[in-house]
Design goal:
The protein is an alpha+beta fold and 353 residues long. Helices cover 38% and strands 25% of the residues.
Length: 353
């Protein structure tokens, strides 16, 4: 980091960003998390024209999902952890960054930005993130693998000569990594995560009850009664949707046991990916994990009993990080504060592209 970077860093609102499929979190250096909003944008249907920014991004836009009139589309511009719509992602990032930095500053250099990205990102996807961030107003941009960000945010000793393992289950991807000496020793990124759990619940409701439900309803079912392991006290929940036979609104009651069965496929896919990653670990690192165990991060870590089924499948202790949904964002902020101490795994100045 040059002298100029250090000087600009004193005046710019530097930030770390967890650019997630479901939610975008922004941390500001020295302030912690200052923004946590859904990665949803409302646009004019058939165009990429974003509606009035005060109502078109984040929470207000998410409220529109599945409820928009014919002239409006509420869309999620990221899919499986990567950008699926470049222009709308750029508009969303710009809105969030303006909201964080504020308006009317007399002098505010373009901020340095650390963005967490899936470890399995392609060069094309990497370039899309960099270009979106640069066009949204970022200055110097650093891309940090999500599992490393999650490990840093969870307080794991990833800089030490010992193995730390993190399983970060987001909305679009599950990131699994074994880390040591501030680098990734073995990792796997699969595009099976929270969204796939929601889709499994939607499919179950359609198959079993001939009832169509929306994404938000499926997410509520997952949060309220979803589980990966058998729960001590079975739960029930009333679900409302559209009857596929009559086309009319209808309600029914579902149980936690049937939702657990519906989630079997995505949960097993995550367990299998964890097992594959462990099989690729060097023997000494594998031995460390007997003592250190597995750390679960991301919103998917909150699925009831997931730590239990993961422990049973691997023989290792699995624990849930403190505030798992913010681990990646907090990791980007810590990384930003210690740029000179951390090895910069992937960094780029857009001027070089």
């Amino acid at each position: 980091m040059g002298f100029t970077d250090k000087i600009l860093g004193l005046f710019s609102v530097d930030m770390g960003i967890d650019l997630g499929t479901c939610n975008t979190l922004v941390c500001v250096r020295g302030e912690g998390i200052v923004l946590n909003e859904p990665s949803v944008v409302a646009v004019q249907r058939g165009t990429n024209k974003v509606l009035d920014s005060g109502n078109a991004v984040g929470w207000r836009a998410k409220e529109m999902l599945g409820k928009t009139p014919g002239s409006i589309s509420a869309i999620r511009p990221l899919k499986n952890g990567v950008i699926s719509d470049f222009e709308i992602t750029e508009a969303m990032l710009a809105y969030f960054m303006r909201k964080v930095t504020g308006r009317g500053r007399l002098f505010s250099p373009r901020p340095r930005v650390v963005i967490a990205v899936p470890s399995g990102i392609t060069e094309v996807e990497r370039h899309a993130v960099l270009q979106s961030a640069e066009r949204a107003g970022a200055g110097r941009i650093y891309l940090l693998p999500e599992p490393m960000a999650a490990g840093i945010g969870a307080g794991l000793p990833i800089g030490d000569p010992t193995a730390s393992m993190v399983v970060d289950i987001g909305g679009g991807t599950t990131e699994i990594a074994i880390m040591s000496l501030a680098d990734i020793a073995a990792c796997e990124s699969i595009r099976v995560a929270g969204d796939d759990m929601d889709e499994a619940i939607i499919a179950h409701m359609k198959r079993t009850y001939n009832l169509t439900i929306g994404e938000q309803t499926a997410e509520r079912i997952k949060i309220e009664i979803g589980s990966a392991a058998t729960v001590a006290e079975p739960m029930t929940m009333e679900v409302r949707g559209r009857d596929n036979a009559t086309g009319l609104p209808r309600r029914t009651t579902v149980t936690s046991d049937e939702i657990r069965d519906a989630l079997t496929e995505p949960v097993n896919a995550i367990i299998e990916a964890v097992t594959r990653t462990l099989e690729r670990a060097e023997p000494e690192l594998a031995a460390d994990l007997i003592e250190n165990g597995i750390c679960l991060a991301g919103g998917g870590a909150l699925l009831r009993g997931l730590d239990i089924v993961l422990s049973n499948a691997t023989g290792l202790e699995a624990t849930i990080a403190d505030d798992p949904t913010t681990c990646v964002a907090r990791g980007t902020s810590i990384y930003l504060e210690h740029l000179e101490d951390w090895k910069v795994t992937m960094e780029s100045n857009m001027d070089d592209i």
